[in-house]
Amino acid sequence: MDRGPILLVSACLVGQACRYDGRIRATVDAVLAGWVRRGRAVAICPECAGGLPVPRPPAEIQNGDGAGVWMGRSRVRTRDGRDVTAAFLRGGRMAARLIRRHGIRVGVFKNGSPSCGVTYIYDGTFAGRFRSGCGVAAAHLAAMDVQVFPEERVREAIRAAIRSTPTRLPQHEGKLTGSGKFDILGPRLQLMDFLREAVWPN
Ligand code: SF4
């Protein structure tokens, strides 16, 4: 049974010190961290993957959202006006590369971020206000038909990730073994494994 990663997660959600201010989030998602530990999820910080340092000046998307950035209509700039769009695009491509490498179909991303935001992002004015829209990496993955969930919907994302791997779901029938005996134990073990992952992700 293939036990590779089936979920992509924002690295700051699982305790990596990759935020713009260099701090670790006060609330690490224990369920997601458990998945990463067990090799069932892969973590990425798209901004670091795109070449930006920690710490770094905060940046926001101006004139739109992540989808607009990919279409060339919007830019990502720091508060002092430095254009960091290229690094954000690079980070989005790195996330896409991970998705393709592992055949992952589901992500859980940090909402509000100009890279990872799923349903809302900062509005580009550096006034602490949000607008609806997605970040640069999240928009790229959504365009690849990846289901991208915000951090508030981790459980839903995990269920979607498990459903996204139909070849790993339990088979309901036994099969003949090489010795000609009917093997009913294998499918039962797969079923137990599936249930354990679904209800007890850690
Ligand atoms: S929200 Fe995304 S880009 Fe920002 S620190 Fe977390 S992982 Fe990195």
Account of the protein in words:
The protein has 202 residues and is of the alpha/beta class. It has two domains: 7-166, no CATH class; 169-202, no CATH class. It is 34% helix and 17% strand. The protein is built from seven helices and ten strands. A four-stranded parallel beta sheet has the order 2-1-5-8, with helices on both faces. A two-stranded antiparallel sheet has the order 3-4. It has a two-stranded antiparallel sheet with strand order 6-7. Helix 4 crosses helix 5 (136-143). The longest helix is centred in the middle third of the chain and has 18 residues, at 85-102. The relative contact order is 0.16. Mean pLDDT is 87; it is low at 168-174. Bound molecules: iron/sulfur cluster. The site of iron/sulfur cluster has 12 residues, from helix 2.
